[in-house]
Amino acid sequence: MWGVRTYVMGIVNVTPDSFSGDGTADAARAATHALAQRDAGADLLDFGAESTRPGHEPIPEAMELSRLIPALERFRSVDAKAIVSIDTYKPTVFRRAHAAGGDILNSIWGVEDELLDAAAEAGVPVIVMHNKKHAEYHNVLDEVLAYLARNAELAVRRGIPHERVIVDPGIGFGKTADHNLALLGALDRLKGLGFPTLLGTSRKSTIGKLIGKPPTQRIFGTAATIALAAAAGIDIVRVHDVGPARDVVRVTDAIVRDWRPGDWAQP
To answer: Is residue 2 part of a domain?
Structure first.
């Protein structure tokens, strides 16, 4: 249910070259990490097997599948109920991952026709993220919002319900640090699109530039953006550090959305 609180998406990088240093191509270790993210309080998990860090090189579908599917199957052998999104922009990879237990498509390159077909056929929600090869804009806010609105409407016209189309401005993807800060300062405009929203700021380089620390030491900087997101009514935050993020959204949601934990009334 959207609008009640901010949900936490735990990142599961099934790749050895993640910018954040928390990835692994070993299926057993990735599944164990996914379980740890779940136990730390993640509402949903995001499995991805291709690094999308700045300067990354795309990998073949076969390699992505060889990392992703064993990790997903190992996780599903232990937990069949957790909500799992699949971070891929390749239709074949998503179809295979959906068959192995993926519940949501999370595409960093919007929704091209074939990818949208795969999601519509599977009847799953889609996360549509803005991305661009070069960080060149006349007006970053207008361009990002127009792109998201256009892609979201394409998904709706393809038969995916409005409430199952989630938009993500793509912090850190094809944007400078100033572009990222401009987007973070205009989350009300993102919410104004009228679709569910996701924000992924965790350990990003913009935070590193502001505080002068490496990815693994950016928890508090990330927490500031998570509090900002929750206060703005963002529906999902995608994070590496689930436990701290869970604490931030709970306190923020209690203040701005009048949310309370289930045991609130107990002495």
So the answer is: no
Establish if 261 belongs to a structural domain: no
Instruction: Kindly report, residue by residue over 44-86, the tens digit of the pLDDT.
Output: 999 999 977 666 678 899 999 999 999 999 999 999 999 999 9
- Separation of alpha carbons 251 and 256, rounded Å: 9
Domain that holds residue 92: 7-256
Decide if 266 is inside a domain: no
pLDDT, position 54: 65
pLDDT at 70: 97
Of the residues 204, 246, 257, 260, only one is catalytic, namely 204
Number of structural domains the chain divides into: 1
Active-site residue, 53 included: no
The active-site residue out of 5, 218, 238, 246 is 238
Q: Phi, psi at residue 245, to the nearest 5°?
A: -65, -40
- Residue 90 structure tokens: 């390749």
Q: Known catalytic residue: 204?
A: yes
**Any domain includes 22:** yes
Strand 198-199 relative to strand 7-13, pairing? unpaired
Can you tell me whether residue 147 is helix, strand or coil? helix
Residue 117 CB contacts under 8 Å (≥ 6 apart), including other chains: 91, 158
CATH classification of the domain holding 181: 3.20.20.20
